[in-house]
Amino acid sequence: MPSKKALIRRPGPRLAEGLVTHLARTPVDTRRAAEQWEAYAAALDRHGWEIFEVERADACPDAVFVEDAVVVFRNVALIARPGADSRRDETPGVEEAVARLGCSVNWVWEPGTLDGGDVLKVGDTLYVGRGGRTNADGVRQLRAVFEPLGARIVPVPVAGVLHLKSAVTALPDGTVIGYEPLVDSASLFPRFLPVPEAAGAHVVLLGGPKLLVAASAPQSAELFADLGFDPVPVDISEFEKLEGCVTCLSVRLRELYV
Predict the structure, then answer these.
(1) H/E/C letters for each residue in 12-40?
(2) 156 with 130: CB under 8 angstroms?
(3) Does pLDDT of 257 surpass 50?
(4) Cβ distance 232 to 43 under 8 Å?
(5) How far apart are CA 192 and CA 170, in angstroms?
(6) Rounded Cα–Cα distance for residues 63 and 60 (Å)
(7) What gap in Å lies between CA 99 and CA 101, rounded to an integer?
(8) Strands 210-214, 204-207: parallel, antiparallel or unpaired by DSSP?
(9) Closest by alpha carbon to 142, among 125, 157, 158?
(10) How far is it, in rounded angstroms, from Cα 56 to Cα 58?
(11) In angstroms, what CA-CA distances link 239 with 28, 66, 95, 178, 220?
């Protein structure tokens, strides 16, 4: 039967040095961040996700944002080649973890760059952000790996945010949600629903009607509840200071068979 597995990685001691691109740098409380990370992991566990902790990468400030290191479609993993040089040492531990879970492993090679946070999966469609972290060759290599498996690849321009999934994610019915001032090409999505807060653009599908959402987006959570979903808020304020959101703190694997 299909199982729900989640890869997570603990924040390291250099978290406060993490990259910021579109936000002004503000101090990060690393102790509070560690507590928030534990609560995030506990929320996944409570909702039926089997947790796998990726080997720490304490020399890499951004390593907690584990989603950026890999893209998984069906049972095939594509190890990213991050667009930021400082993040490239984050991938070996993630590669080991997905291989241990039985994924077939592929890699993005130079000159391609690809961050996992630039890939939004909606059914068999993979929307891929083209912007500061993912380049044209990275999209080409992702296409070469996943199109033979039945994926449809749709490039999406990204300018005002770090990654595509900084601007949009999707509800269980496939509706793409986003905060309109940060979305460059809403017309590329067959169904698009604007949300009232930037943090409300990010949801993790926990299963059934349950959606993991940031506590900083109460109006969006109310909107989701009105639509019949069940929001599960988590406080990730320290990670939001580093342009993090609920999606990038884990890699969710729904299609592995055990």
Answers:
(1) CCCHHHCCCCCCCCCCCCHHHHHHHHHHH
(2) yes
(3) no
(4) yes
(5) 9
(6) 5
(7) 5
(8) antiparallel
(9) 125
(10) 6
(11) 8, 12, 23, 19, 19
Can you tell me the distance from the alpha carbon of 11 to that of 29, in angstroms, rounded to the nearest whole number? 12
Average pLDDT on 174-198 reads 96
The catalytic residues are 163, 248
**Phi, psi at 35, each rounded to 5°:** -65, -40
Q: How many CA atoms lie within 13 A of 19 on its CB side?
A: 17
User: What's the length of the chain?
Assistant: 258
The arithmetic mean of pLDDT across residues 143-162, rounded, is 96
Distance CA 43, CA 233 (A): 9
DSSP state of 81: B
> CB neighbours (10 Å) of residue 160?
12
Query: Burial code of 129-139, b = ≥16 C-beta within 10 A, e = fewer?
Result: bbbbbbbebbb
Residue 258: the pLDDT is: 38
Contacts of 244 (CB under 8 A, 6+ apart): 64, 65, 236
Which domains does the chain carry? 5-253 (3.75.10.10)
Asked whether the beta carbons of 81 and 107 are under 8 A apart, the reply is yes
Q: Can you point out the beta strands (E) in the chain?
A: 5-8, 50-53, 70-73, 76-79, 104-107, 119-122, 125-130, 152-157, 168-170, 176-178, 192-194, 204-207, 210-214, 230-234, 251-253
